[in-house]
Specification:
Layout lengths: L7 E7 L3 H12 L4 E4 L17 E4 L1 H9 L3 H7 L2 E3 L1 E6 L5 E5 L9 E5 H14 L3 E2 L5 E5 L5 E5 L4 E9 L6 H5 L4 E17 L6 E7 L2 E7 L5 E8 L1 H9 L2 H11 L7 E3 L4 E10 L3 E2 L2 E3 L5 E2 L7 H21 L7 H29 L4 H16 L1 H12 L11
The protein binds flavin-adenine dinucleotide (FAD).
Length: 405
């Protein structure tokens, strides 16, 4: 994306993460003049040798959005890994469930993609679509009142736009600046991430084991013997796991994973993050909208965080472009309200589902253990119900924005 001297935009997107870039691309593709502000420079170079610890399971709906923006091909050319199967089981009993793409006549269930591959593919698409890149700069002040919002940056520039979108992550500056409240609660877990070499090939399967104190996921990468793990455990346990030497860690991990892929071995650093549920009270205000982690953060156990954010981006673009086509001011709350109604409902349902799921699997009470074991095994045999659940998780059904259909 080129740096620009322009200072007036239809829409300014604060935050050039995956959600912000997807939104900027979609709005520019629809003919709007768009600028992206990020406090950091994007890492535009590519090196085969290093791997991003932050990976996401990308649903079909998100893949379609990337394809519509012309970003998917670039991502595929860099590095991604399709997975055809999923195995989920419970540590406390025999409950186990398997999903496969073949059951619903699809080539795969989704793709595991590193965060920097997602960003790089989207960044290149945004460049082609004429989005302005206004970084590195952080926002300092937001003023509203007239037909344009004014956003002052810490490098002295003042930008004007009809609409400013906060895609600036979980600790959103814009959410605060616009006076939008949010509720927040600790999931009581830290997510530990690392890249792991496995003795046996991962068979393009995503593996997930529920245990009383957390969830362990092995996500298959492009090398058949490499997986990215997301291990959510109580904070003390995460701290302990991070300070163990490699051998000690490998032993604990192998044991927690029941050695399903044989011996396991750390290939690099470990990182961990506190996992917090956050939900903004409103997604819109005068000349402001929120999307992605700025609007909601969720437990990674269902691998939905970035996908929900991407559906926010596609829905917001659809609502804004419709209002623009009708000659309406895209920054008015009346123009933005359909977006808030649409996405707040969908995201509330997903946040609530995660709470229920976590409570059920976090329990060591015998009746609940029994219920979840019987539940998983019964569900595994109920073919139509299962097919429906797979399609829903892949983003093949539901109230999808046009760009993701
Ligand atoms: C351990 C872990 C595992 C996860 N696993 C998955 C998974 O498997 N699947 C999944 O879908 N999701 C997963 N997620 C969630 C996922 O990573 C996030 O939901 C997603 O990256 C959010 O994207 P975003 O663009 O909204 O925000 P971010 O990626 O946080 O981007 C925000 C951007 O805004 C910029 N910014 C911030 N403040 C300012 C400011 N004041 N001024 C200018 N710029 C600013 C930042 O530099 C950054 O570039 C996981 C998260 C964690 C912690």
């Amino acid at each position: 994306m080129h740096r620009s001297r322009a200072s007036q935009y239809d829409a300014l997107v604060l935050g050039g993460g995956v959600v912000g870039l997807a939104l900027a691309g979609a709005l520019a593709q629809g003919g709007l003049k768009v600028g992206v502000v990020d406090k950091e420079l994007i890492e535009a170079g590519w090196s085969e040798d290093s791997r991003d610890l932050r990976v996401s399971a990308i649903t079909r709906a998100s893949q379609r959005l990337f394809a519509r923006l012309g970003a998917w091909e670039a991502m595929a050319a860099l590095r991604l890994s399709p997975y055809q199967r999923m195995r989920v089981w419970d540590a406390a009993g025999g409950g186990e469930i398997g999903f496969s793409a073949a059951e619903i006549g699809e080539p795969d269930l989704g793709h595991i993609v590193e965060n920097r591959v997602l960003r790089l593919g989207l960044y290149q698409a945004c460049q082609r679509l004429g989005v302005d890149w206004l970084s590195p700069a952080a926002a300092e002040r937001l003023e509203r009142g007239g037909e344009l919002a004014r956003l002052s940056l810490d490098d002295g520039r003042v930008l004007k736009a009809r609409l400013v979108v906060g895609a600036d992550g979980a600790r959103s500056w814009l959410r605060e600046a616009a006076g939008i409240d949010h509720r927040e609660s600790d999931y009581g877990h830290h997510g530990l991430v690392a890249t792991i070499r496995t003795e046996h090939a991962h068979e393009h399967t995503a593996w997930q084991r529920f245990q009383s104190d957390g969830v362990l996921a092995f996500l298959p990468l492009s090398d058949p013997n490499l997986c990215s793990i997301v291990w959510s455990v109580p904070p003390e346990r995460a701290a302990e796991l991070k300070t163990l030497d490699s051998d000690g860690f490998n032993k604990e991990l192998g044991h927690a994973f029941e050695h399903r892929l044989g011996r396991v071995e750390l290939t690099g650093p470990r990182a961990s993050f506190p996992l917090t549920m956050r939900h903004a009270a409103r997604y819109i205000a005068e000349r402001v909208a929120l999307a992605g982690d700025a609007a909601h953060t969720i437990h990674p156990l269902a691998g939905q965080g970035v996908n929900l954010g991407l559906m926010d981006a596609a829905s917001l673009a659809e609502v804004v472009l419709k209002a623009h086509a009708m000659g309406r001011d895209i920054g008015l709350e009346t123009s933005l309200r359909p977006y808030e109604r649409w996405r707040r409902g969908e995201n509330t349902a997903m946040l609530a589902a995660m709470d229920g799921f976590k409570a059920l699997f976090g329990s060591s009470l015998f009746p609940l253990q029994l219920a979840r074991n019987i539940g998983l095994s019964l569900f595994d045999k109920a073919a139509p119900l299962k097919a429906l659940a797979i399609k829903r998780a892949m983003g093949l059904t539901g109230d999808l924005p046009e760009l993701a259909r």
